[in-house]
Amino acid sequence: MTGPxxxxxxxxxxxxxxxxxxxxxxxxxxYGADVIKVERPDLGDDTRAWGPPYWGDPTERMAAYYLSAxxxxxxxxxxxxxxxxASLVRQLAADADVVLENYKVxxxxxxxxxxxxxxxxxxxxxxxxxxxxGQDGPYASAAGYDFAIQATGGLMxxxxxxxxxxxxxxxxxxxxxxxxxxxxxxTTAILAALLERGRTGVGRHIDAALLDTQVxxxxxxxxxxxxxxxxxxxxxxxxxxxxxxxxxxxxxGHIVLAVGNDGQFGRFCALAGHAEVAQDAxxxxxxxxxxxxxxxxxxxxxxxxxxxxxxxxALLEPNAVPxxxxxxxxxVFAHPQVVSRGMQVRHGGAPMVATPMRFDGxxxxxxxxxxxxxxxxxxxxxxxxxxxxxxxxxxx
Length: 396
What we know:
Number of domains: 2
Order of helices and strands: EHEEEHEHEHEHHEHHEEHHHHEHHEEH
CATH superfamily of the largest domain: Crotonobetainyl-coa:carnitine coa-transferase, domain 1
Number of strands: 13
Shape: elongated
CATH topology of the largest domain: Rossmann fold
CATH class of the largest domain: Alpha Beta
């Protein structure tokens, strides 16, 4: 089942590599766009080599990392630094609706593949440039990597254990969230530009910067600083604005307790056998609990050690007190809700994570598996050589 093809007829030329750009390209492919991925001859996208683990036989194996961000695309190997290669890209761009690229600022202009050059060929083109720091400003020419962006953009300053506790140091998030968020933000911008183009007939140049995205996704932490003049610090798994909202040790492990309002706190205390604590003036409101965090948390920590994680979950969940066990990935993919929602799929034989959105109950999924390097190159080159323009999808 491939589900709805909401972007059927939309042509995407994906010149990007690694994660942010390919993530956007894969999302557009899942939504039904025809995506042609341009890769370097011989090596291809950097992430093809980011293994183990690998999928496939030894002669045509692909790194799991590459598989995670490139389904639904056709691959053609082109050396854009040669006149012949640049010409092939221009031919594809002339018929494309969208170009995705994540080269350093100004690099594609050397080959006549920048927005200004391609817009002259195709005024309807929506051209999305993804960089670490954006198209202008003093850092525009700097290379941008997710880890560095998490550091520069403030995320690491609020992630990790509190100063003075064991293992205390700034931490990155366990997945490349700056890349992934930028890929998703870029996709929303592309879709908005395509919608506008339907009215105006003219495309746009989208400037998507990892640093801009990282700053934007600081959300309440940034707002706390801008509005309240508070500089957020690392708090481990605690929450700056909500108490209790953190990880607690249980009799046999750990559990997340995410009490979001005073009613939930009252129910939690009653279920734990200590209803009177919710009436204590120090703890009766969230604002009071924040002010008396240091007094409350040790009390709750003692309670949580009285039951196992499963016992707490069975007690709290049915009574609308938000909590959750902390699962490792084998448990995640065996979780009955994850299984019921169909979040693991087989695609081209490979196990993959499905697109998270549903449309009228259907989950879209690109038809093509992640391509081998230059798998579709011969057919694409032949179509261009024959003057047929953008080659039809459906074959290799």
